[in-house]
Amino acid sequence: MQAAFVLPVVFLAFAIQSGESIKCYNCNSASDPKCADPFMTGENSNLLVECTPDFVKQASDAINAVSKKVSEFASSFGFGENKPSTEITNAEFICAKEDFSNGNKTWTVRHCALPGSDKTDLCKYLTDAGKDKPNAPKVSFCDTCNTDGCNGASDVQAALMAVIIPCAALILAQFN
């Protein structure tokens, strides 16, 4: 009786995910060298976050605070700035990875992002943002994706299930 109960419980434990939101790596190699390539997912599982409106809003608020200071400084010299709308509601999220360079400095950023539209494409926006500004960071790589952990490496849940199910079957065979 117990053996018949073990397999469904083991299967459900690994099949049920913690939420429906995508999970992305969230880091910046300028402050965390482990974020740089080559990226080791096993060592960086603590950087995997669930992309929820609250999480992205907190990150966006922090970025907007810095952006506001930069905009105020730039406007004092007569420069303006257009930026895409970042309204966060019940949007589905994507993962993003960018590599930046500025002079001899390079860094990698991995994060949750809002999906692009005809008006706002993250990679195009970031690439265009530094075109006319000689001292601005340049984007050397930018990519977005829409599966868990895709801005680091492939998802391991399927591989884990391929190991767990045969192990559970072996355990059940011991009880028969």
From TrEMBL:
GO process annotations (BP): regulation of synaptic transmission, cholinergic; sleep
Location of this chain's protein in the cell: Membrane
Name the UniProt record assigns to this protein: Secreted Mys2-like protein
Origin superkingdom: Eukaryota
GO CC annotation terms, alphabetical: side of membrane
Membrane topology (UniProt): Lipid-anchor; GPI-anchor
Main location: membrane
Entries under InterPro entries matching the protein: QVR-like (IPR031424), Sleep_regulator (IPR050975)
Pfam families registered for this protein in UniProt: QVR
Lineage: Eukaryota, Metazoa, Ecdysozoa, Arthropoda, Hexapoda
Keywords, alphabetical: Glycoprotein, GPI-anchor, Lipoprotein, Membrane, Signal, Transmembrane, Transmembrane helix
UniProt signal peptide: 1-21
